[in-house]
Amino acid sequence: MTPPPPSRPAVAAPQGCTNLKLRQLSRAVTRHYDAYVAPLGLKNTQYSLLSHVVRLGPIRPGDLARHMRLDASTLTRNLQPLLVQGWVALGPGDDARSRLVEATESGQAKRAEAQRAWKQAQLALNARLGPAQVVALHALIDDCLARLDDAEEDDSDA
After folding, report:
1. What is the CATH number of domain 24-129?
2. Each residue of 39-87: pLDDT tens digit?
3. Among 33, 104, 113, 142, whose Cα sits 20 to 30 Å from the Cα of 149?
4. 3-class DSSP assignment, residue 101
5. Distance from chain centroid for Cα 93
6. Residue 79 burial class via C-beta count within 10 angstroms: exposed 0-12, middle 13-18, buried 19 and up
7. Bridge partners, 90 (sequence order)
8. Does the model's pTM come out above 0.85?
């Protein structure tokens, strides 16, 4: 007589609202990073935007918004404080209707200063959560984003 095959552990059904859970996690992580960059006069979102502009600029606002997965209106609103501080500038684009976003010298210096604080925030988060957990979280997020992107492409093809 052969023994029965090993049973698989039951997978629990998701409980609660995924959007709520993600927003709670996002707010907690944002508070963590903000605590490190706030002394430099930046918010988490401003550091991220400034970093993208430094790396990708000069870049058209629409391309920057797509790259950062932001709505154009959100990008415009988030650019305003960086423009006021003189960390980014809007210059002419390829034609009279287009513009390019570019980091200024002071913006590049601010980004370099903030990058050191950001690294400290990341190391502290890694220590708090554990490196294996952070790696697993990144993989899960990347997989979920890819699946959601695929679903959006399927919806737009229909």
Report:
1. 1.10.10.10
2. 999 999 999 999 999 999 899 999 999 999 999 999 999 999 999 999 9
3. 33
4. strand
5. 26
6. buried
7. 101
8. no
